[in-house]
Amino acid sequence: MEQILSFFNDNKEMIYFIILSVFVGVEVIGGVPTVLHTPLMSGANAIHGVVIVGAIYVMLNVDPTDTLALILGFLAVLLGTLNVVGGFVVTDRMLEMFKKKK
Amino acid sequence: MKQHLLEICYLIGSVTFIMGLKMMGNAKTARNGNLLGAVGMTLAIFGTIFLHEGEVPGMIYGLIFASIAIGTVIGWMTAVKVQMTKMPELVSMFNGMGGLCAALISLIEFTHLIHTGEVAPIGTMIAIVAGLVIGSVSFSGSIIAFLKLNGTMNKPIRLPSYNMINNIVMLAVLVFAGYVAVSGGSMILAYALFASALLYGILFTIPIGGADMPVVISLLNSFTGLAAAFGGFLYDNKVMLTGGILVGSAGTLLTLVMCKAMNRPLSNVIFGAFGAGTAGADAGSSTTKGSTKEASVSDVAVLMNYSKKVVIVPGYGLAVAQAQHVIHELEMLLEERGVEVKYAIHPVAGRMPGHMNVLLAEANVDYGKLVEMEEINPEFATTDVVLIVGANDVVNPAAKNNPASPIYGMPILEAENAKNIIINKRSMNAGYAGIDNELFYNPKASMFFGDAKKALTELVAELKTM
After folding, report:
1. Which among B97, B243, B250 has CB closest to A28?
2. Are residues B156 and B298 in the same domain?
3. Most Cβ neighbours (<10 Å): which of A101, B9, B390, B438?
4. Residue B428's closest CA among B419, B418, B439?
């Protein structure tokens, strides 16, 4: 119990932050027309590619003699980039089509 | 100094994600919203690299740039080249990449902890383990979803009493994860956890039918968001937290909205799949069998030429056959002759909500002609001809009047109310849900067999001679 309370206390800002973000996420999506669901899903898909920031951070702090970590880190950055670049480009292609009709 | 600048980059990044996502909810601003998100992402990525404090060997920078360069080229090429019909599986694939990325980060953290022999606080351990498990499930699940959508694996695979097995595996993975988080684990345990989470992702996705894949992708999408958020918690990184949670909550909501469009609770999609109802549908199918009529190209052309109002119901078959341009040609031809043409869009037509709109927009179909289900349904009674192209389950009356049917309760397009029903299909095979459609045996219905593109091209040619 003590542990849980102190965990909460140590991370209370983070916990507020998380709860508020959940509401923002719900709020932002609410009332989106069905036609935009696919691009929206695709756009959200690109945004969670932000995990690449974590991969880069890990790489910057990795022990240069630790080959395994270097290989895993290299792969992680590669996969994150695929997610980000592919995600945004595909979404752009989808949305481009909505614009064509004058 | 650098640290402060980095925090500002992250703040800007977070705001662009929120605003970008908001703008994507409106057709007019959507494209700029996506670009805004991309700008914020670029800022966050380059900020992380260039505003890093502390000595980093050049070799590591080299590796980072090499991997970003390779990823950019591959990601860009794939995204630019892929056909619009293949979009859903591509989104699924990219989602899987993000999930694996999160899982790998956790694995590296494990090697780091084991190497240094540090004991991490429990909060950190939970974040590492959660990122590993959720990321892995999202990865293997997305790959299965990808294979299902692209047809490599198109039948739901159900082990005997798969629900029980899945739940047991899920519990086992959770208990195992809890144990690793508390005990601090070892490298072997970390790999074992990685492998078991991958296995669960596969078990979770294989029993689910192809028609439900959009829901699954959306759910896995929010999983990856959650995994990214745990990464953010681990590194106290605000942009990862905002981005991850935003996608996590938005993705969950989107999943629920999609389920609502199909009138099936999420639990039904995941646990029930179409499994429970299949036996009932088989039993019922023998009673609905009757005779079907077949219509030739000229029959269809004459019928359409002399009607006042035609409603087109496009389905995935149209997308597969790449017939969206031909159907637009047909629409314009009919309009020239004074026939009113509309498209009836079921919320889950195609493989994702809104997928059909994207495809038809690609073919320059006027946005105003795409009518959503609630609005078009009352109009079927005054429609002379309804042309169903490559759609099946979304017009199956069994959803309304056969409680034994697995799709019972799903809202449908009431095409059976139209005066004439033309169904273009390649064969009499059942639709994606694998069930029979009594609409085909309706006395007003005629089957117009053939590949959608070929059949419609012939139809257009025939109409031009009239």
Report:
1. B250
2. no
3. B390
4. B439
Q: What is this model's ipTM?
A: 0.92
Q: Which of B46, B81, B116 lies at the terminal end of a domain, its last residue?
A: B81
For chain B, what is the domain count?
3
Sorted by sequence, the CB contacts under 8 Å of residue B246 that are 6+ apart come out as: A21, A24, A25, A28, A44, A47, B17, B18, B21, B225
Most confident of B11-15, B356-360, B398-402: B11-15
How many interchain CB pairs under 8 A, A with B?
A: 356
Residues B215 and B311 both lie in one domain: no
Probe site for chain B from A12, A18, A32, A50 (most B CB atoms < 10 A):
A50
Minimum distance, in Å, between the CA of residue A13 and any CA atom of chain B: 11
Average pLDDT of the segment spanning B89-101: 94
Q: Which residue has the tokens 């074992």?
A: B192
> Within this chain, do residues B444 and B296 fall inside the same structural domain, yes or no?
yes
Cross-sheet strand order for the sheet of B370-372: B293-294, B445-449, B420-425, B385-389, B309-314, B340-345, B370-372
Q: In this predicted model, what pLDDT tens digit does every residue of B364-384 receive, in sequence order?
A: 888 788 888 888 999 999 999
Same domain, B314 and B360: yes
User: Residue B246 has what pLDDT?
Assistant: 92
Q: In this structure, what are the phi and psi dihedrals at residue B388, rounded to the nearest 5 degrees?
A: -100, 115
Residue in B282, B393, B436, B451 annotated catalytic: B393
Do B50 and B114 lie in one domain? The reply is no
Substitution target from A7, A75, A82 for chain B, most B beta carbons within 10 A: A82
Domain limits for position B43: 1-81
Instruction: Specify the higher pLDDT residue, B287 or B168.
Output: B168
pLDDT at B273 > cutoff 70: no
CB contact under 8 A, B249 and A26: yes
Answer yes or no: do B353 and B446 share one domain.
Answer: yes
CB contact under 8 Å between A39 and B366, yes or no, is: no
pTM, whole model, 2 decimals? 0.80
* Final residue of a structural domain among B66, B81, B96: B81
Q: Give the chain A residue whose CA is nearest to the CA of B348.
A: A34
Please check whether residue B175 touches A, CB under 8 A: no
| Interatomic CA distance for residues B395 and B440, integer angstroms | 10
Residue B286 has pLDDT above 50, yes or no: no
> Quick check: is B393 catalytic?
yes
Residue B285 included in any domain: no
Percent of chain B surpassing pLDDT 90: 42
* DSSP conformation class of B154: -
Instruction: Provide the shortest C-alpha distance from residue A71 to chain B (in Å).
Output: 9
Does residue B125 share a domain with residue B44? Answer: no
